[in-house]
Design brief:
The complex is a heterodimer.
Chain A (H helix, E strand, L loop, with lengths): L1 H35 L5 H4 L11 H9 L2 H33 L4 H15 L2 H14 L6 H24 L4 H9 L4 H12 L1 H17 L2 H6 L8 H11 L4 H21 L1 H14 L1
Helix pairs in contact in A: 1-13, 3-13, 4-7, 4-10, 5-7, 7-10, 7-14, 8-9, 10-14, 12-13
Chain B lengths: L7 H30 L16 H8 L1 H33 L5 H13 L2 H11 L5 H8 L16 H26 L3 H10 L3 H12 L1 H15 L4 H6 L11 H10 L4 H27 L5
Helix pairs in contact in B: 1-13, 3-7, 3-10, 3-12, 4-7, 12-13
The chains are: A mainly alpha, B mainly alpha.
């Protein structure tokens, strides 16, 4: 009895501390949501609270003034393009490292190579890359950025997919081989259908990385019409510095797709992001 | 090597080609270029002159660079302490509750999936002197946060670090929590029988058992804090008066505002060497059997 009550009380204290930290996260996010539906006049008198008069027009302003139809299209193009290119090259590589030759010299060499790639700070190569892209006419194009994002996410994606494929039973591949499947068919007909969960996780994390990416987005896209949402929002904050309603609405528009995906795929996001770091 | 595959060496290389090609093209080749360009005084166009180690000499005289290195150092220390302590505590508290655990996990992790620009806009508003907290306190007649901490020399770096920590600590909570759940329950039961307090259990069971994951988190923090850029660039641009300038910002302005290709490459090379030294340090520790 005594211990039970003690447990209860201590778990109450746990909840108090945890809730106060949760509030440190929730309250600023709430302020952003409130601001996105607050009329401009109210910001002076009611800086943090729920608006007295709700104004959804902020979203309309942000969408129209920010040319968000185009911007969303740009960001979606980057996400989809990167997914196609990145998952293809990473999937092929992971298949090779996990199934074809898990103990070969390739695994050691390529693994080390990609690991070194992860720990190189982007600042080392961003400027030569910029000059290369300029001379190849890839600068200021979406395809140029797609190639960069695919490469940046390739080590992480390869390792994640590989660690999943390592758990696939080899008997399946042997059986398929006996039935006369080519190596390519082993990949498309056996490995791919079996490892869709890891491809989904990888796709979610890569989409998140591309959608949120900032440094390369502001550097490699110069024309406003091609800019993705992160660099537009960056320009927004100075262009509409005093229109907090519209800037907040624009931020929500950027965060919403990610937040919705997060609601549906919480576990995948969390496991993908943390295992990516701890394995890399 | 599985027997069912023939001629496997060649084929497995074909499957690796695309990723190696794209990775070489985007990361390795420009990195090598950078290692060469740091020995030149190139400005992006015109003639390339070999200047030897002149850029490095200039770098060691560069007052702003020294400042930036110092700020990076503070940044690393801040991240090695504040979020680590908070997250260890929160993860430990989370293991002690049953109901609502998933809720807390999601909330703590949520800022980690938000874009840097969104997090910055949230906190720029909250620290806005006229609106946000400052405005709220003013309406109550209290003079607090009446200047934006991003705009003051003394606080700019710490204010930006706070925003980044706010966004980051949930990630550590999850990592530590994963580690703590791998600890054998029987250890805690034995400690309960011995009458150990909560703190003793944390100190003598939890901490030693999660040591590998804990040290890994420290390595990650050290490596990730070297190229830190987004938050400082968005919130203060390194200002006011270089009071929050970090190395990555210094490089960025040298590279893309002044087009000092050679000099910027030199800064990049220094960052690379620094990260390389840290990574090999831990790799060697692991080699000689020091369990990290």
């Amino acid at each position: 009895m005594a211990t039970a009550r003690f447990r209860q009380r201590s778990s109450f204290i746990n909840h108090v501390i945890l809730t106060s930290f949760a509030l440190v996260i929730i309250l600023p996010c709430l302020v952003l949501i409130f601001n996105s539906i607050k009329p401009v006049e109210e910001f002076g008198t009611n800086p943090l609270g729920f608006p007295n008069e709700i104004r959804f027009m902020n979203y309309y302003d942000a969408w129209v003034n920010g040319n968000y139809t185009q911007i969303f299209y740009n960001s979606m193009t980057l996400v989809v393009g990167t997914l196609i290119l990145n998952l293809t090259v990473s999937g092929l590589a992971a298949f090779s490292l996990a199934i074809l030759n898990p103990k070969g010299i390739q695994t050691a060499v390529v693994g080390l190579y990609l690991l070194v790639g992860i720990s190189i700070p982007a600042q080392l190569y961003i400027l030569p890359l910029f000059l290369m892209w300029k001379s190849l006419y890839l600068l200021d194009t979406r395809i140029g950025l797609i190639i960069i994002y695919s490469a940046l996410n390739a080590p992480f994606a390869t390792f994640l997919i590989r660690s999943y494929m390592l758990q696939l039973p080899t008997e399946l591949f042997e059986a398929a081989r006996l039935d006369g499947a080519s190596t390519y068919q082993l990949f498309t007909k056996v490995a791919l259908p079996l490892s869709w969960p890891v491809f989904l996780t990888t796709a979610l994390i890569v989409s998140l990385n591309v959608w949120n990416e900032f440094l390369f987005a502001i550097t490699f896209i110069i024309t406003d019409d091609y800019k993705p949402i992160s660099s537009i929002l960056f320009a927004f904050q100075s262009r509409f510095a005093n229109d907090y309603g519209a800037v907040s609405a624009a931020s929500i528009l950027m965060a919403a797709p990610i937040a919705i995906l997060f609601m549906f795929f919480q576990r995948r996001f969390i496991s993908g992001l943390t295992s990516g770091a701890t394995k890399g | 090597m599985p027997k069912f595959l023939t001629n496997i060496n060649a084929i497995s290389w074909y499957f690796l080609m695309p990723v190696l090609f794209i990775h070489f093209f985007v990361i390795a080749f420009p990195s090598i270029l950078s290692l060469l360009l740091c020995l030149t005084d190139w400005n992006g166009f015109g003639k390339i002159n070999y200047v030897g180690l002149e850029n490095f000499e200039e770098l060691f005289r560069d007052r702003i660079f020294k400042k930036a290195v110092y700020h990076n150092f503070i940044w690393t220390i801040l991240f090695l302490t504040i979020p680590v302590i908070i997250s260890l505590g929160l993860a430990y508290l989370l293991t002690g509750i049953k109901r609502g655990q998933m809720f807390y996990r999601l909330v703590f992790f949520f800022p980690y999936i938000l874009a840097s620009i969104v997090n910055c806009l949230i906190w720029r508003y909250i620290f806005h002197p006229k609106h946000g907290l400052g405005g709220w306190f003013e309406n109550q007649g209290i003079d607090f946060l009446s200047k934006s901490p991003f705009a003051m020399k003394e606080t700019a770096l710490y204010a930006v670090a706070w925003v980044d920590i706010w966004h980051f600590f949930g990630f550590l909570v999850i990592i530590y929590l994963t580690g703590m759940y791998q600890v054998d329950d029987s250890l805690y039961e034995a400690a309960d029988i011995e009458g150990a307090t909560k703190f003793q259990k944390f100190r003598y069971i939890t901490l030693p058992m999660i040591r590998p994951i804990f040290i890994l988190s420290l390595i990650i923090i050290i490596i990730w804090s070297v190229p830190t850029f987004d938050y400082i660039y968005i919130l203060t641009m390194g200002g006011p008066a270089y009071s929050s300038e970090v190395v990555a910002n210094h490089l960025y302005s040298q590279a893309f505002q002044r087009m000092n290709v050679g000099y910027a490459s030199t800064i990049g090379v220094m960052m690379f060497f620094y990260v390389g030294i840290i990574v090999s340090f831990f790799a060697i520790l692991r080699r000689i059997g020091w369990e990290v």
